[in-house]
Design goal:
Elements lengths: L25 H21 L8 H13 L8 H18 L19 H4 L3 H26 L5 H14 L5 H30 L5 E4 L1 E2 L4 E5 L3 H11 L5 E5 L9 H4 L4 E4 L7 H4 L7 E3 L15 E4 L8 E3 L6 H10 L6 E2 L8 E4 L3 H6 L1 H9 L5 E7 L8 H8 L5 E5 L14 E2 L2 E2 L1 E3 L6 H14 L9 E6 L3 H12 L6 E3 L8 H11 L2 E2 L3 H9 L1
Parallel strand pairs: 3-4, 3-6, 4-5, 6-7, 7-8, 11-12, 11-16, 12-15, 16-17, 17-18
Antiparallel strand pairs: 1-10, 2-9, 13-14
Bound molecules: iron/sulfur cluster and FE4-S3 cluster (SF3).
Length: 528
């Protein structure tokens, strides 16, 4: 196998053995490559047949891309079935193409090995495109389940997939890399609109980490729609719901927080799940990444839905009947007494909901605090978490931020520090959780509003971005920040294996992006 799409890739170069660090087996990796090759084939078939593309074609592309994100789908059967559906769709667009013996190169599946084995700069640029659109597809998928789609975003998937299959050079590929960032901005705006119009504008909300006695269900991932359905189906059944990982920001949405049995958050970072789920008397439902291979101690309590799948785990299908999860929760019965859990720093609660709506509603206060010198600097410390020991950097960095600075955060990397109490500045908490990774859109909106208020460029604001990455959604967000011309981003804990030295030099020259070093050194550098 060859896979180097995530931050924990073996030896910081690539997973090449029988299984990846994430637990993905070589056979599964092969099937995911075939699936991707089929998607390129579908994009080739779309070329010239655009008028034949339907909502179903778009949905298939989103599903195919999302399925191959790290920690989403480990199930050979569902991956193969999806590939067959993609072939069938290509066959509909270009009938009998699959029966044709002569490879015309126009509608064929793409052999992804020719990408992995190709020139390292081309591989690097095509990887940025492929991994980036996997991330965008996940966000587009979440928006689509709420009934929101964007033609331009959908069309771009075909363009990008087509480009991956072409023998193009750097000059042709680089603009498409940046276009991934541009399209992702549109897609995150779409998802923001979908979430806020469906569930209301998030408001700052305290979330307890205590699990109350009685039956409960833990729900993980990013899909708010699944959470809403689960909340509705458990109402009045004496079952409490606890969020996990990227589901935490759900507590801040008015249309979700109004349910009294959405009680709190369970667990710390996603990479601790094998330890934390081992002994809980409750089922866990995964709606998206990050699913780790379940240990035998709790595998029979893990349920999946949407594109997530793991062999042997019960999958909740399109009918969205969560009865098996509900019955398991009642059967397990939960704790006999309330259990007071803490975050990794010992905190008993966390706060979320500082979306662009919440922060910009007190924009005057923020601007005044900056003008009067009470706030000297903003740090955006956000992104994915992961198991690499070097990720303690982010905890240490946040602990070292001076008292006259604000830490904006988002995505699951915040579990390293979101239970810290850093106090307030003029009533504004020093740590503000803006939400999930896609709520990078909120951070961008706030940065643009501050630049507007101070009549300067975003790069001239007293704002530093110290980002952590793990999977492919982080790739598209990073490309969005580059598309917006944001400079001086610090990225860690290691740089992507798929960025070749030449491509890295290009990013350094144009955007001055760099790796994190030590909290002290970076703090000194950023505060000048
Ligand atoms: Fe390795 Fe990451 Fe690929 Fe899993 S997703 S096989 S850990 S590079
Ligand atoms: Fe985390 Fe897996 Fe990326 Fe949405 S849940 S950010 S790593």
């Amino acid at each position: 196998m060859f896979c180097f799409q995530c931050e924990q890739t073996a030896g910081c170069t690539g997973c090449t053995r029988n299984a990846g660090v994430c637990g993905k087996k070589s056979g599964t990796a092969r099937l995911q490559d075939k699936l991707t090759g089929a998607l390129v084939g579908l994009a080739r078939a779309v070329e010239g047949n655009e008028d034949q593309v339907t909502k179903e074609t778009d949905a298939l592309v989103m599903e195919g891309l999302f399925t191959t994100i790290t920690n989403v789908n480990f199930n050979d059967e569902t991956i193969s079935a999806l590939t067959s559906r993609i072939h069938a769709e290509k066959d509909r667009l270009v009938p009998r193409c699959l029966d044709c013996a002569s490879a015309c190169g126009r509608n064929d599946d793409y052999d992804i090995d020719s990408l992995w084995d190709g020139d390292e700069d081309i591989r690097s640029l095509k990887s940025l495109i492929l991994f980036g659109i996997r991330g965008v597809a996940a966000y587009a998928y979440h928006a689509a389940v709420l009934g929101y789609t964007d033609e331009e975003v959908n069309r771009f998937f075909y363009k990008a997939l087509f480009a991956i299959g072409m023998d193009w050079d750097t000059d042709e590929l680089l603009p498409i890399v940046l276009e991934v960032g541009e399209i992702n901005l549109k897609c995150m705006a779409l998802l923001d609109q979908a979430n806020t119009e469906t569930f209301g504008m998030p408001t700052p909300t305290e979330v307890p980490l205590t699990v109350e006695k009685g039956p409960f269900i833990v729900i993980s991932g990013h899909d708010m729609h699944d959470l809403k359905l689960l909340i509705e189906q458990t109402e009045g059944k004496g079952i409490n719901i606890y969020t996990h990982g990227e589901m935490l920001p759900a507590h801040a949405y008015p249309e979700l927080k109004k349910f009294a049995h959405l009680k709190g958050n369970f667990g710390t970072a996603w990479q601790n799940q094998q330890k934390e789920f081992a002994s809980i008397p409750a089922p866990v439902l995964f709606t998206t990444n990050c699913l780790m291979p379940p240990k035998p101690s709790y595998a029979d309590r893990v349920f999946t839905t949407e594109v997530v799948s793991y062999p042997g785990c019960i999958h909740i299908g399109e009918n969205k009947d969560f009865t098996p999860v509900i019955e398991r929760a009642l059967q397990l019965g939960g704790y006999k007494e309330d259990q007071a859990f803490t975050g990794i720093n010992g905190g008993t609660k966390v706060t979320t909901g500082f979306s662009h709506g919440a922060v910009l509603s007190v924009a005057d206060k923020v601007v005044d605090a900056v003008k009067s010198g009470k706030i000297k600097h903003f740090f955006l410390v956000g992104g994915c978490d992961g198991a690499r020991p070097g990720r303690n950097y982010y905890t240490e960095f946040v602990k070292k931020t001076p008292p006259d600075t604000i830490v904006l955060t988002l995505a699951c990397g915040k579990y390293r520090f979101n239970d810290l109490d850093l106090g307030t500045i003029d009533g504004l908490p020093r740590i503000m959780d803006m939400g999930q990774c896609n709520d990078a859109y909120s951070a961008i909106q706030v940065a643009l509003a501050l630049a507007d208020a101070f009549e300067c460029e975003v790069n001239e604001l007293p704002l530093s971005m110290v980002l952590s990455w793990y999977e492919q959604k982080a790739v598209c967000i990073l490309l969005t920040l580059l598309h917006l011309g944001i400079k001086n981003i610090l990225l860690g804990p290691t740089l992507p294996a798929f960025i070749s030295p030449n491509v890295l030099n290009l990013l350094i020259e144009k955007y001055n992006i760099g790796p994190i070093t030590t909290p002290d050194e970076d703090m000194r550098k950023l505060l000048g």
